[in-house]
Amino acid sequence: MENYRRAYHSGSWYTNKREVLKSKIEESFKRANAQKQNVKAAICPHAGYDYALETNSHVYASIDVENVKNIFILGPNHHIYNKGFLFPRVEKYETPFGFLQINKQIISDIIKSDTHN
Question: What family classification does the UniProt entry report for this protein (predicted)?
Fold first, then answer.
């Protein structure tokens, strides 16, 4: 059994057609015409694809990914109330472009440090 989170919103919040999605994102990045920067952190809207694509493209297109080792994605929990952080139990996330591997070692280190409550 694969240990991954399915792309549940593929085909509803965004197209499930990989090439169409890729084309829309690439076009949005071109319109952003952003200059690459050594970005340490970025905050992007948590909104539907049609609402946030242009804004997020400006942010992501400006990130010089040359030296990026890890990406941390923080977001609200829409299903249960919790205090502190919840961490994924899966090994990877499914996306229309393939799988995103989760760095379980970093998650383990954060949990051990007890700085997440």
Answer: Belongs to the MEMO1 family.
Q: Report whether 45 contacts 55 (CB < 8 A).
A: yes
DSSP H stretches of helix in 18-92: 18-32, 49-61
Q: How many domains does the chain have?
A: 1
User: pTM for the complete prediction?
Assistant: 0.82
- Amino acid present at 19: E
For residue 82, the domain's CATH number is 3.40.830.10
The mean per-residue pLDDT over the stretch 5-32 comes to 94
Instruction: Report whether 45 contacts 74 (CB < 8 A).
Output: no
Instruction: Name the residue type at position 52.
Output: A
Residue-range definition of the domain harbouring residue 67: 4-113
Residues 7, 4: Cα–Cα separation, whole Å: 9
61 within 8 A of 34, measured Cβ to Cβ: yes
Cα 23 versus chain centre, distance: 18
User: pLDDT per residue over 21-51, tens digit each?
Assistant: 999 999 999 999 999 999 999 999 988 888 8
